[in-house]
Each structure stands twice: as C-alpha cells, then as structure tokens.
Amino acid sequence: MKCYVINLEGSSDRLRWFTEQEPLSGIEILRVPAINGSHLEQEERMTLMERRRSDYPVPAGVLGCFLSHRRAWEWVSDNEDQWAFVTEDDAHIFKDAKMFFESTDWIPDDADIVKAETSQEVTELSARSMPAKGTFRLRKLKAAHRNTAGYFIGRDTARRLLHLTASYCDPIDEVLFNPDLGISSNLMIYQLDPAICIQDNDAPGRIGFEQTIIRKQEPEPRTPMPFGIKKVVREIRRIYRRKIRPRFLQRLQISLFKKVPFAGDP
Q1: CATH number for position 128
Q2: What is the model's pTM?
Q3: Is 41 among the domain residues?
Q4: Which Pfam family, just one, is annotated for this protein (predicted)?
Q5: Which range among 83-97, 209-223, 248-262 has the greatest average pLDDT?
Q6: For range 54-61, the mean pLDDT
Q7: How far apart are CA 76 and CA 68, in angstroms?
Q8: Whole domain around residue 195: which residue ranges?
Q9: Rounded Cα–Cα distance for residues 2 and 24 (Å)
Q10: Structure confidence at residue 217 (pLDDT)
Q11: Fewer beta carbons within 10 Å, N or C terminal of the chain?
Q12: Does 266 reside within a domain?
C-alpha cells in the first residue's frame, strides 16, 4: 500500500522527519505537493468560496488544505492500487503500525474509508466492533470526528469523492467526517480503535511543528451568539446531543460515545 503525504513546498524538514518514522520503513511514500491557499488568485478564491455548504469559516489555509486533499485523491484515483493511505506531514504514526500498511486483508469489504487518526474528542461509534489487526478493533464512525492527518481510502472512493466535492468548498475534516455536511453520511466509514495516527499538536511526544497549510494566526470570522428563543433552542439541542441521546443509545447498546485513544499514549 502506498502512502501519500501532503507536504508544502519549503517544508523539507517536516517531510524528512515524517519519512524517517520506523513504521513507514519499506513503505512507498509519495509526496503530494500541498496547495497554499494564500497564493491563490483572489478571483479563484471567491469562486471557491461560493461553493460553501456550511457556516464553517474557510480562511486561506483551510481552503488550501481542502484542495490539497482533493489533489491527493486525484493521485490515488489514478493509481492501480485498490487502497491507499493519505496523511499530512505532521502525523505521528504508532510504532507498531506497519502491519496495517503491509496488506489490506483487515479492511472490511464494505469500507469506503478507515479513519486511522484520533482527535481525542468524544465521538459516536458503533457499539459493536470487529477485529482489525492484533488487538485493534474497527468500529463504524457515526458522528463528526475531526482532523485529517491519516486515513485509508479506497481508489473507487477517491474517484467518488472527487465527483461529490466538485461543488464543495468546506473544511476537509468536516467534509469527510461530519455527516451533517451530507457527504460522509453516504459513505461507510470505519474508525480504528485505538488509533494509529495523531497530529503533532496532540501527540504525547510532540515535536512542536508550526502549522503550515493551516496557519493559527489566520483570522476567522466569529459566529454571532444567539439570543432569546434561539438561545433556548440551541441549549436544548446541545443537552439532547451531549447528555440524553448518548445515554439512551448506550443503554440500548447501539452506540458508544468516547474519545478514541492513540495507541502510542503512555
């Protein structure tokens, strides 16, 4: 299985660090040149912004990240391999994760994507799981689970996503892993539990890389706070989503609500 790593021009130190990780030894790594959103012409940016389907802010860095992952999908779709691993150059790969790259026999037949990363935020997973490799399990991902530092994707799925996102321009992690945007709800997405991948910012052995494609200093527009009846409705929905619904589904043993651990956590 090939590994497609998204890397911005001029970030050779990050690429070198990424490729020297032990689990990737012997794995074919292809550098996908990242797209710098701040280098796009204003007219092109405005055209892309008209494709937004959500209220999430899309500053230049987020736009570049979206386009960079679509470029990676193009590369995957043009390759003969049935499965590929798409990642970003600040991803920490679990030291014993090589077995997941050496074969695809652990990937379910109905899978479109297997999310290999954790954002370490609570998400909704299927209560039932199936074996992957070793002690790792696979669970169906049923709610938003953000970040796109590492995921296995089928070649046919990459082609399908290129078609589905041709008229989109939203944060890539929301597009892929948030059913509310309408794309991932049409895909079969599994989550590795525990995860074998984590972004440097959340990693236990953090290097301290600065964000490149998405820069922290980029201003993001603030969403006006609701008031009156809108605020009441929002609070009721929030309590239902975070408290009532999870308890009900867990009692029925339908869903599991938890933070997916990183396999490399101490």
Answers
A1: 3.90.550
A2: 0.87
A3: yes
A4: Glyco_transf_25
A5: 83-97
A6: 88
A7: 13
A8: 2-259
A9: 10
A10: 41
A11: C
A12: no
For 71-110, letters b (16+ CB in 10 Å) and e give bbbeebbeeeeebbbbbbbbbbbbeebbebbeebebbeee
Q: Which residue has the higher pLDDT, 83 or 53?
A: 83
Residue 211 placed within a domain = yes
Q: How far is CA 70 from CA 73, 153, 175, 188, 211, in A?
A: 5, 12, 11, 19, 19
Output the pLDDT for position 263.
97
Q: What is the full DSSP assignment across 49-82?
A: HTT--SSS---HHHHHHHHHHHHHHHHHHTSS-S
Size (the chain), residues: 266
Q: Please tell me the predicted confidence (pLDDT) of residue 189.
A: 98
Number of structural domains in the chain: 1
Residue pointed to by tokens 């070198």: 16
Is residue 238's pLDDT more than 90? no
**Tokens 């990937």 belong to residue:** 107
Question: Measured between alpha carbons, how far is 92 from 87 in angstroms, rounded to an integer?
Answer: 10
* Residue entry with tokens 């991948």: 197
Domain contains 13: yes
Would you give the end-to-end CA distance of the chain in angstroms?
28
What average pLDDT does range 228-239 have in this prediction? 60
